[in-house]
Write a structure and sequence with these properties.
The chain is of the alpha/beta class. Among the domains are: 3-55, no CATH class; 105-167 and 174-183 and 359-497, P-loop containing nucleotide triphosphate hydrolases (Rossmann fold). The protein has 20 helices and 11 strands. It has an 11-stranded mixed sheet with strand order 2-1-11-10-9-3-8-7-4-6-5. α7 crosses α8, α9 packs antiparallel against α11 (291-298) and α14 runs parallel beside α16. Residues 1-26 have a biased composition (Basic and acidic residues). Residues 1-45 are annotated as: Disordered. This is ATP-binding protein.
Length: 497
């Protein structure tokens, strides 16, 4: 009998337990089972050792390069040892930067701005390109920086460098006249208004008509814009909201003026508000209802604001020009007159913005802290910011510090809410150097981190913190010498001709 047959019989005997088994037989069966299991383990161990010995022999027989590499020129090594400069930093900084030391940027499509100070690469920005790529959803920009930090040069270079891409520029109010030489340099036009000048601005001009508008659509749009503009002018001068009775007085007076002239002028409307047509006012109640609004508008044609709105327009708003700017530097001392002129220019601009074939445009609000003090003008600005994507425009709000928003209206008022919504509807926030006492309010308004907040006082000339949605960059703005000469605003201080 073979050993295999013997082991099989023992295994079978060990597994089969009879009903009446003696103790000695049971112990013998268990010993037999243990012997079988031990033999199996030894067999497996021998097999594993044999495999290991075979693999080891195969590895020893393989040919490998020496530890020091090949000898001679084949080793591809430099003659000296590579030495890198040491870098020492805190664990907190290294933990935040590793493994990526800088942002990848916003891409290469768009307008060149300058150098990313963290990565050393070029920084390119274009709100329309970023919107097309889904990186932002609101093309509006807020730019803040103290005097002399370079924010004005940044604004000018952004919109002038966009002109070759087919964009146009509107500056509905330039209180310091800084954009006038830029407009003339790029082939645009600056409309200069002020006392003693021959230029006149008729608020009731027809303005730009879209080629796609039918006669009925154009008549309705023109009537609505004229009615809204006269109401906004009256609210600005009165510094309050108009009553329903005053709106009725304006509507009837405007309708009567339009019937009597193809292009009415403001004195006609004022005369009809103060002395309504007898058919419109048989009980002589309308004259009393519109008395205050009539005298408020009279300031624009015969009072301290006269000389700018009391006749047909001598200047024309041409939306086909690459740039149009309204120069208000001659009336900078009269804040009410600035707001009135801004309201008129906004009406001009809105007619061009509503044209679907008008293309993409920059709208620049410089010295915004002065413009936001008037409810009627602030509401128009807010409407344009909300409709920026519909109009295909990018609004830019330029002021010195973000705390200027706290000076708009009382806390909790509708004006304060409108001012805050301008910031909320701008996904690009550019902050140039700020004074230390402004850091808290700036960080709160923009949601800056502690590191970003500490950067602001140390920023140099032309350096800014860019917050594009949830991404941050520190950028050095770079100017061409010709741009530097055209954008310079320090000529009087430096004596430069």
């Amino acid at each position: 009998m073979s050993d295999a047959d013997t082991q099989e019989r023992l295994h079978t005997a060990a597994l089969v337990e009879p009903h009446h088994e003696r103790g000695s037989d049971r112990r013998a069966r268990k010993r037999s089972a243990g012997q079988i299991e031990a033999a199996a383990r030894k067999a497996r161990s021998r097999e594993q050792r044999a495999r290991w010995l075979a693999e080891r022999a195969e590895a020893r027989s393989a040919a490998y390069l020496p530890a020091g590499g090949e000898a001679g020129s084949s080793q591809l090594r430099m003659p000296g040892r590579l030495k890198l400069p040491k870098h020492q930093d805190t664990s907190a900084v290294l933990a935040g930067h590793y493994p990526f030391l800088a942002e990848a940027g916003l891409g290469s499509a768009g307008v060149f701005v300058g150098q990313d100070l963290y990565s050393g690469g070029s920084f390119v920005y274009d709100p329309w390109v970023l919107y097309q790529h889904g990186m932002i959803t609101a093309p509006n920009i807020v730019l803040a920086g103290i005097v002399g930090s370079g924010k004005s040069s940044l604004a000018k270079s952004l919109y002038t460098r966009s002109l070759p891409f087919g964009r146009r520029v509107y500056v509905p109010g330039d209180p310091k006249g800084e954009h006038t030489p830029v407009a003339e340099a790029v082939g645009g036009k600056a409309i200069i208004l002020g006392h003693g000048l021959r230029n006149r601005l008729n608020p009731l001009d027809e303005g730009h008509r879209a080629a796609s508008a039918s006669d009925a659509e154009w008549a309705a749009q023109l009537a609505a814009r004229r009615r809204e503009l006269i109401g906004a002018l009256a609210e600005t001068v009165l510094d309050r909201i108009l009553t329903p009775l005053e709106h009725t007085a304006i509507d009837l007076a405007l309708a009567d003026a339009v019937r009597s002239a193809e292009v009415p002028i403001l004195p006609m409307v004022v005369d009809r508000i103060l002395a309504p047509n007898s058919e419109d006012d048989p009980d002589r109640r309308l004259a009393e209802d519109g008395r205050l609004v009539g005298h408020a508008l009279r300031r624009l044609v015969a009072g301290d604001l006269a000389g700018l709105f009391d006749g047909p327009s001598t200047v024309r708003f041409d939306p086909s020009l690459p740039m149009v700017s309204l120069d208000l530097s001659r009336v900078a001392e009269n804040s009410t007159l600035i707001s009135v002129l801004m309201t008129c220019s906004s009406a001009w601009m809105e007619s061009a913005l509503a044209d679907p074939a008008g293309g993409q445009r920059w709208v620049i609000y410089d010295e915004a802290w002065r413009l936001m003090a008037y409810p009627a003008l602030l509401r128009r600005m807010d409407a344009q910011w909300r409709l920026a994507r519909h109009f295909g425009i990018a609004n830019m709000l330029v002021f010195h510090k973000l705390s200027d928003l706290d000076n708009v209206g009382d806390s909790g008022s509708a004006m304060r809410a409108l001012a805050s919504s301008l910031l909320a509807n701008a996904e690009t926030r550019i902050v140039y150097r700020q004074e230390p006492d402004q850091l808290g309010s700036t960080a709160t308004a923009l949601g800056l981190s502690g590191t970003e907040q500490k950067l602001l006082p140390a920023l140099g000339l032309g350096q800014g913190l860019w917050r594009v949605k949830d991404r941050s960059f520190v950028v050095q703005h770079q100017l061409h010498p010709d741009e530097l000469a055209a954008f310079d605003t320090t000529a009087r201080m430096t004596g430069t001709p």
